[in-house]
Specification:
Length: about 500
């Protein structure tokens, strides 16, 4: 049973019900939209939380080998991925439910409006036909009364003795005319009645059932959309649950991987100096003039004071005393720490050298392609990049050899062989390096790699007393050569015209 046959007389109820169902669909769409906004804000807050607690310390702190600290960073990383899954859920809810329901809701509202307009139009047609029927009925009634009145007047004229034959004929003629008009009105009324009954039957047995059936279909589609929306609401979150579980499992794994014994050993490995504890302090007998034991044992006493063993590593220094992180500083580190720092430098230089070498090979291949097909590009346009890359490779090889020599002296590795400068210059010559560039590489990167080349010139803005170790003095207006740029510690390595090399504050100079 459908609405057209069972609810043919419940137009108002059907109109209210279909409107309420569309309103429910709109309410659900707004609910999902607000839920998506909550997920979006939740994801944003989680990301901000992870960003707040992510380590932003020095590179040494970021590269710590303690599994407990690294585990916390892993937890933050997994939580950041978890936030991404919540963000993905928000996008899924918005696209699969809100956008689709919004489009469908607009279409359903317009469709319902059209169906109701069809019913209203059919009602207006039926009411217009009924008005015509009533009009023809009243006219028929009026004309029939006039015809009866004319008949009565005719009968009265026939019975009146004083009435002439002409009067009687006139009355009969008038009565015949009225009867004829009444018959015409009767026929019109019968025709309108037949027409109205046909339209009424068509309205109640065809138009109304057909439109109500379409409204019923619309209502059922609306209910189905709601049902599918409820399912999608749950499915959208179920789809991301495996990824969320992976994030949570990874956090659990990070916690279970932490080994307190391993952290203790890592801390020892990181800060172990390798120095021998100070020997016992010898008794100095001032009552004896000659102290033979003191002279013999003095050579075996370590040149370190007990007080120095307890100095803080991150002690705050005066702004006027430089503490740059440089090659000179490594010589003052304990043996194990110096070896470890040198090893890190060697590995970093090897990575940079590998990257520059790959870039050089790519440029040479590209130049060969350009030489074979000039339409693809000009080979000479690559020459500045090739020259610069060759310069970087030679510089990195020189610095790498220096670091490997120091690492070998510290007992932490062997020197790896790299092509000498002459071999590399031959390669550069094949790449059409100018004689000036060849002289530059021959001069700067010879076999001993002892000479540094200035990278810029600067002028002193203020006087500086380089009394501390590793620094150099300068006067206002003095011109210096920049040997090493600021590495983030606020100090620049410079060379004076006299040949003295040391560090000065970066804010005390102006690069020319």
């Amino acid at each position: 049973m459908d609405w057209g046959s069972a609810l043919w007389d419940q137009h108002d109820a059907i109109e209210r019900h279909t409107q309420s169902e569309l309103d429910l669909l709109e309410r659900y769409m707004k609910f999902v939209k607000e839920r998506a906004e909550i997920e979006q804000n939740y994801s944003k807050q989680l990301r901000n939380l992870c960003k707040k607690y992510t380590r932003r310390g020095s590179k040494e702190d970021q590269d710590t080998k303690l599994v407990s600290q690294q585990g916390f960073q892993d937890v933050l990383g997994q939580l950041n991925d978890y936030a991404g899954q919540r963000e993905q859920l928000s996008e899924s809810l918005t696209l699969s439910i809100c956008v689709e329901l919004s489009r469908s809701l607009t279409e359903l509202r317009q469709e319902r409006k059209n169906h109701l307009a069809e019913i209203k139009k059919a009602q207006q047609n039926l009411e217009s036909s009924f008005k015509q029927l009533e009009s023809s009925k009243r006219r028929f009634e009026k004309e029939w009364k006039e015809a009866e009145k004319a008949n009565q007047q005719t009968e009265k004229a026939e019975q009146d003795a004083s009435a002439t034959k002409a009067d009687v004929d006139k009355a009969k003629q008038h009565a015949n005319i009225r009867i004829h008009i009444a018959d015409e009105c009767k026929n019109e009324y019968a025709s309108q009645l037949q027409k109205y009954n046909k339209e009424q039957n068509n309205y109640y047995y065809a138009d109304i059932p057909f439109v109500y059936k379409k409204l019923q279909d619309l209502e059922e589609r609306c209910v189905r959309m709601l049902a599918d929306g409820y399912v999608q609401f749950s499915d959208s979150e179920k789809k991301i649950l495996p990824n969320i579980n992976k994030c949570l499992d990874s956090i659990i794994s990070s916690g279970r991987r932490i080994d307190e014994k391993q952290d203790s050993l890592a801390l020892i490995e990181q800060y172990k100096s390798g120095a021998v504890p100070p020997a016992d302090v010898e008794f100095e007998d001032f009552s004896q003039v000659v102290k033979p034991a003191a002279a013999e044992n003095s050579a075996h006493l370590p040149k370190v004071r007990i007080k120095q063993l307890f100095l803080k590593k991150n002690k705050v220094t005066s702004p006027d005393k430089p503490m740059p992180f440089s090659q000179e500083d490594l010589s003052r580190l304990p043996p194990d720490q110096r070896r470890r720092r040198l090893q890190e430098k060697v590995e970093e230089l090897q990575k940079d050298l590998q990257r520059e070498t790959e870039q050089s090979e790519a440029l040479m291949k590209m130049k060969g392609v350009y030489e074979q097909n000039s339409q693809l590009g000009d080979p000479s346009s690559l020459q500045p990049q090739i020259t610069q890359t060759a310069h970087n490779i030679a510089r990195l090889r020189g610095e790498l050899k220096k670091q490997q020599v120091q690492l070998t002296e510290a007992g932490g590795g062997t020197i790896q062989y790299y092509p000498s400068s002459s071999e590399y210059i031959s390669v550069l010559s094949e790449c059409s390096v100018s004689p000036t560039d060849e002289e530059l590489y021959e001069c700067e990167f010879d076999e001993d790699f002892d000479s540094d080349v200035p990278i810029a010139q600067c002028r002193a803005l203020y006087d500086f007393d380089g009394s501390s170790e590793g620094s150099v003095s300068m006067s206002v207006g003095e011109q210096l050569s920049v040997m090493e740029q600021d590495q983030g510690d606020g100090w620049v390595r410079v060379q004076k015209s006299s040949g003295d090399v040391g560090y000065v504050p970066a804010s005390y100079i102006h690069v020319i």
